[in-house]
Design goal:
The complex is a heterotrimer.
Chain A: H1 7-15, E1 28-29, E2 31-35, H2 41-52, E3 57-63, E4 71-79, E5 83-91, E6 96-98, H3 107-118, E7 121-123
Parallel strand pairs in A: 2-5, 6-7
Antiparallel strand pairs in A: 3-4, 4-5
Helix pairs in contact in A: 1-2
Chain B: E1 4-9, E2 21-27, E3 30-37, H1 45-49, H2 54-62, H3 69-84, H4 90-119, H5 122-143, E4 152-153, E5 156-157, H6 165-189, H7 191-197, H8 205-211, H9 216-219, H10 227-230, H11 251-275, E6 292-300, E7 303-311, E8 317-323, H12 326-337, H13 345-352, H14 356-360
Antiparallel strand pairs in B: 1-2, 2-3, 4-5, 6-7, 7-8
Chain C: H1 2-20, E1 24-29, H2 35-42, E2 56-57, E3 66-70, H3 78-87, E4 93-97, H4 99-103, E5 125-127, H5 134-149
Parallel strand pairs in C: 1-2, 1-3, 3-4, 4-5
Helix pairs in contact in C: 1-5
The chains are: A alpha/beta, B alpha+beta, C alpha/beta.
């Protein structure tokens, strides 16, 4: 059984690889979460993998919250004895994420799903083909909030 | 230089129970690799969940997959209960766990039959599915349904395990014990099974970790992770669970791990029935769930299931995200296909134990 | 003249008897949760043993008389369903198994789901249930056999 990661080590590793101030938030039950900048994502994940052996990426969740309608929140859920989440915020008008495929191959399917459901552009990978939506889908990203027409 | 051909499998194929499109590239008898196309079973469940109340969502989530229906609703109910800040009575926790283990047994017996059929042992397929009926009978006695049970509700469970159920369950579980011991002997001694599975499509522990797999496939490569022991939902934190691993990572290891897991789940069912306390089976739960976010993990028959739920103070979920274990298993499949012969394709497909309905949602 | 009509009637009834007692089935899942599909596979196993009615599960649509279809027909699987139906030789029958194959079931309202098999191919028998019990599917086959015996 892998050693359980301690929240202090998680915070220390993340803070060491970003200029932004970081703090642990417990607003997600069962998870220790830190909000980071989207540009730091790749470096932070690489550091977490190398220094703390945090390699198990469980899921990538994206959502467009009604209390933040101009942003898309993307959460990377990791696990090592307990849940650890990295949160990034992207502008809803032009959401761009850096792919983690070069360090975690398993991020492939999750990134493709998030890209097609929310219309997020993913850089640092060859192509991002749709995963689940049908071939003849032409109604735009289905999980986005529909703007109410006046 | 042999010519390269593409073998299309699916969306309808005798090998597959569910629609998925595989394009397998082969040169002669050697498989070079493959590509997948998912989405044939995509019903947009995450989107549908936002327009149904929490209680209305339980039947929807039960029908993400017919084989692992109970573990999905269990995880969802624990998520909602965490946001409500309620704890369900211990008796309800044990009943939920009992059905989770029964579901694991029936799922692995289903897999065992499918593997046997693909390896050429049609009789073992018939026998194992016949024995699976014993488990379905128990589930039907407890809940009224063979495949979808509807036993979970927010705040507990809807049906109780009465005293009159115990002798029926004990009798059927005794029969299952004997049958599974027989299957274990068949699979360990039968030379044709070993010949078809030993050394086929090995997966290293490193590769498993890179893809984020957890479940029988990971345990078959020596990765010692089981959500029932390592991130337990109640009452697994009070039960003694032995996790079965195997170091080799080939198709035989995956067979070994699943067969022994059936046996282990039977023992767990007996422990649950001995330890189940008296008491109520549910508590009242408010319809409007206070705003909050939660992540719940559980161990489905195929691996780790992760639910992220956000509520905004209304009766409707604001966001429900479901990650099922078959998704990384499908991601890793082209790696397995690149090492085998064409005749081994059924063994690899069976070893992965696909549940496309779970993956596509 | 009368003898010829009687002969034709006898041949027709023998033909229908042979047809109803040897229905070969192809099973297609058009995007369902798999619950009805495992109950359909259960029909082949010793407890329900549908082979005693002459029913055999076939892999190729060209050999099949009956298309046993489950699932609410997702947009992606519509093409496959049409292809299988068009490959089956006449006379053919379609049996829709499960609530979602009749109306879309719990998945009604989803934009990726068409909501029933009869939106794509003509259906002869509807078998409700979620998941449909194997006994119900056997009852459907018996009804289909009676229909065939009376000339559809």
């Amino acid at each position: 059984m892998a050693n359980k990661l301690m929240p202090e080590d998680f915070l220390r590793c993340v803070s060491a690889h970003t200029q932004q101030p970081c703090e642990l938030t417990g607003h997600i039950i069962n998870e220790t979460a830190i909000t980071i900048a989207a540009d730091d994502l790749h470096d932070i994940v690489a550091a977490l993998m190398e220094e703390l052996n945090l390699t198990h990426l469980s899921a990538i969740t994206a959502q467009q919250r009604e209390d933040h309608p101009d942003e898309i929140q993307v959460m990377y859920h990791f696990w090592q004895g307990g849940g650890y989440t990295l949160i990034v915020w992207l502008p809803a008008a032009e959401p761009v994420l850096t792919s983690l495929m070069d360090i975690i191959i398993g991020a492939d399917f999750y990134e493709r799903e998030v890209a097609e459901m929310y219309g997020i552009t993913i850089t640092n990978r060859e192509e991002t083909p749709p995963l689940l939506l049908p071939d003849d889908w032409d109604e735009g990203p289905p999980m986005r909030r529909k703007e109410k027409s006046v | 230089m042999k010519e390269k051909i593409t073998i299309p499998i699916g969306p309808q194929h005798p090998l597959l129970k569910e629609p998925i499109s595989l394009r397998i590239d082969a040169s002669g008898e050697e498989v070079l690799g493959g590509t997948l196309r998912l989405g044939y079973v995509h019903r947009g469940i995450e989107k549908l969940a936002e327009s149904r109340t929490y209680t209305q969502n339980i039947p929807l989530i039960e029908r993400i997959c017919g084989i692992c229906s109970h573990v999905h609703t269990t995880t969802f109910c624990y998520a909602v209960e965490a946001l409500l800040g309620i704890e369900i009575p211990p008796r309800a926790q044990y009943i939920r766990a009992l059905l989770c283990e029964l579901e694991r047994i029936h799922s692995h017996l289903l897999w065992l039959g499918v593997l046997a059929k693909h390896v050429g042992l049609e009789t073992v397929f018939m026998h194992s599915w016949h024995d699976r009926e014993l488990v379905l009978d128990i589930m039907e006695e407890l809940s009224g349904g063979r495949v979808s049970h509807g036993i979970n509700q927010i705040g507990g469970v809807r049906f109780d395990v009465d005293a009159e159920h115990h002798p029926m369950m004990a009798d059927k579980m005794q029969k299952l014990h004997e049958r599974i011991t027989q299957f274990m002997q068949i699979f360990e001694r039968e030379p044709s099974i070993k010949a078809r599975t030993h050394g086929v499509a090995p997966l290293s522990a490193d590769l498993i970790r890179q893809y984020g797999l957890a479940g029988p496939v990971a345990r078959a490569s020596g990765v010692d992770v089981d959500m029932r022991r390592d991130d337990p939902l109640p009452p697994y934190d009070r039960l003694d669970i032995s996790v079965i691993t195997h170091p080799d990572g080939d198709a035989w290891s995956r067979t070994y791990v699943r067969i022994y897991e059936i046996y282990e789940s039977l023992l767990l069912c007996e422990k649950i029935l001995q330890a189940i306390p008296e008491g109520n089976i549910s508590v009242r739960a408010r319809r409007k769930v206070p705003a909050g976010e939660v992540v719940v993990r559980s161990e489905a028959p195929r691996g780790e299931v992760v639910y992220y739920l956000r509520s905004n103070g209304t009766e409707y979920p604001a966001r429900l995200k479901i990650r099922t274990p078959t998704l990384p298993a499908l991601a890793i499949m082209p790696m397995q296909l690149a090492q085998i012969h064409v005749a081994d394709i059924p063994v690899v497909l069976a070893g992965v134990d696909l549940c496309i309905a779970c993956a596509d949602r | 003249m009368k003898g010829r009509t009687r002969l034709r009637q006898t041949i027709n009834s023998i033909y229908r008897w042979a047809q109803k007692n040897s229905l070969w089935v192809i099973h297609y899942n058009s995007g369902g949760c798999n619950g009805c599909d495992i109950e359909i596979l259960d029909l082949l196993t010793p407890r329900y043993d549908v082979e005693r009615l002459g029913i055999l599960a076939e892999g190729s649509p060209r050999h099949a008389d009956v298309l046993l279809c489950t699932g609410p027909v997702t947009r992606q699987s519509k093409e496959g369903l049409l292809q299988i139906y068009s490959q089956m030789p006449s006379p053919k029958w379609v049996v829709a198994v499960g609530s979602c194959s009749i109306t879309g079931g719990v998945f009604q309202g989803s934009p990726t789901v068409l909501g029933g098999i009869d939106k794509v191919v003509p259906v002869d028998l509807y078998v409700p249930g979620c998941a449909t019990r194997p006994e119900a599917i056997i009852a459907a086959f018996v009804q289909l056999q009676e229909r065939i015996a009376h000339g559809k």
